[in-house]
Amino acid sequence: MIILSVQRKPSFRLATVLSIAHCVAAGLLWPLILPMSTKAVIAILSIISLIYYSRQEALLSASSAVVAFELSDDMQCTLTTRAGESVVCTILSSTFVAPYMTVLNLKPVGKFLTRSVVILPDGIDAEVFRRLRVLLRWKWKSVR
After folding, report:
1. Burial environment of residue 106 by CB neighbours within 10 A (0 to 12, 13 to 18, 19 or more)
2. Is-contact 100 120, C-beta < 8 A?
3. Is the per-residue pLDDT at 128 higher than 90?
4. Could you tell me if 30 and 75 lie in one domain?
5. What average pLDDT does range 13-36 have in this prediction?
6. pLDDT tens readout for residues 51-98
């Protein structure tokens, strides 16, 4: 039985946090005693990382971005990507829940690698965000 259905929307707060974090990392790179070519490669990789995670988690514009998910009674989460693919996952105990952010750590059924979904309050409806936090903190905390 589905107990919570969540529709995600782009999170401009997350995009801002990602941008600031990547800029700070790039700023801390330049004073290091490294060859300029190494610094340039690391800076380019940082830009690629910013673009990837902004599209994947903040702006939800990548085809593999999670645009919706449903939580069910049996600790299952069904993700829906922008491309329309449905992925059934198990919620891991390493999921992080706080008033300012929730990070769903998920293990897709039949896959080796895990997947994370970062949710800030501006990324979903406020009441749904509250219900999600309560479910993850109290319902599944006791089952883990």
Report:
1. buried
2. yes
3. yes
4. no
5. 94
6. 999 999 999 999 999 999 999 988 789 999 999 999 999 999 899 999
- Whether residue 41 is found in the same domain as residue 79: no
How big is the chain by its Cα radius of gyration, in Å? 17
The total number of structural domains that make up the chain: 2
Q: Tokens 């910013």 map to which residue?
A: 50
N-to-C CA span, the chain: 19
Question: Do residues 49 and 73 both lie within one domain?
Answer: no
73 and 94 share one domain = yes
89 forms bridges with which residues in the sheet? 77, 108
pTM: 0.88
Domain span including residue 37: 12-58
What mean pLDDT value characterizes the chain?
Answer: 93
